Amino acid sequence: MSTCESLLPPSGKVPSPAELAALIKHWGGELGFQQVGIADTDLRLAEARLIRWLEQDLHGTMDYMARHGTRRSRPAELVPGTLRIVSVRMDYLPEPLDRTQPVLADPTHAFVSRYALGRDYHKVLRRRLQRLAERIRTAVGDFGFRVFVDSAPVMEKPLAAKAGLGWIGKHTNLINARAGSWFFLGELYTDLPLPVDRPAADHCGDCQACLAACPTGAIVAPYRLDARRCISYLTIEHQGPIPEPLRASLGNRIYGCDDCQIACPWNRFARLSSEDDFQPRQGLDRATLIALFGWDEPEFVARTEGSAIRRIGHRRWLRNLAVALGNATPGAPVQAALNARAEHPDPLVREHVAWARGAQARKVCG
């Protein structure tokens, strides 16, 4: 008898909530999730922290964080009838960190956050969660559910912590004691009265490695992130000019930042992803700044097909690359690349190219 068969109730009988919870976790493993947990909808503590964070204006220009109100922290307001959240995680690290760090240290190369090297994770996890919901329907009949993968006002990390998938670390990412933090999260909101899992304990202790590693000092205190200084926010969420005082700190990071995760000692337990979809595409794990800066808009659109990177658009792509080229080691190829974009029709691009040319000139002049 297979493990799954042993979990099934007698033929024709609807599984009990406990039996169904065990089945859901088994099916989740079969669908490629490394862990599945179940949480209730009580997020009062997380809601209070979110309100304080918003009141301190630490969300930058992400006005939607406040606009969604309590729908983010009260799941039943977002999806009426929700009783439980099935939370899942899926590893995405495509390569060992000893191959990642040399790219980050090489000013001629572009550093793309490891999560964005492959296919858009939203689509991958959403499809798997939908298949999980279909298996549940086969077992219990019609039931209420909605699938979310960073696609609505959902407090995915507090929910995952309540579901036992890990704890929220001082860098505000979720950490699992056996798998580090290199994983994606997804949720299945459901009206099924499933038994809930025990939350994981916090194991950060006295460690402050992530705070020390942040290039811009965005982790302003343990468990508190100032998005306005965060490189991931600045290169992805932020639509306007990158603040000048922070540009040099971006280094060669053109899409996201992984420094706090690289520094976290729990990531010595991180596991490489076995998902083909998360393997690097378009050579983005080894691409040079100059090569990527040379992409015109049609090439950018074509090469980012199916990638999370496409969401920032070509103008912000060039903005980020211009800053990285301004931080690069001076040389004729860098100067030529920047000169070629000096008269770009978009003022956002022109301004960052002008800054980069100035930064290069200052380096040459000493």
TrEMBL record:
It is found in: Cytoplasm. Its cofactor is cob(II)alamin; [4Fe-4S] cluster. The keyword Cytoplasm applies. InterPro entries: 4Fe4S_Fe-S-bd, 4Fe4S_Fe_S_CS, QueG, QueG_DUF1730. Keywords: 4Fe-4S, Cobalamin, Cobalt, Cytoplasm, Iron, Iron-sulfur, Metal-binding, Oxidoreductase, Queuosine biosynthesis, tRNA processing. Cob(II)alamin binds at residues 72, 150, 174, 185, 232, 257-258. It catalyses: epoxyqueuosine(34) in tRNA + AH2 = queuosine(34) in tRNA + A + H2O. One of its GO terms (molecular function) is epoxyqueuosine reductase activity. Binds 2 [4Fe-4S] clusters per monomer. Pathway: tRNA modification; tRNA-queuosine biosynthesis. Its EC number is 1.17.99.6. One of its GO terms (biological process) is tRNA queuosine(34) biosynthetic process. GO terms for cellular component: cytoplasm. The active site is at 150 (proton donor). [4Fe-4S] cluster 1 binds at residues 204, 207, 210, 264. It is an enzyme of class 1 (oxidoreductase). Residues 192-224 form the 4Fe-4S ferredoxin-type domain. This is Epoxyqueuosine reductase.
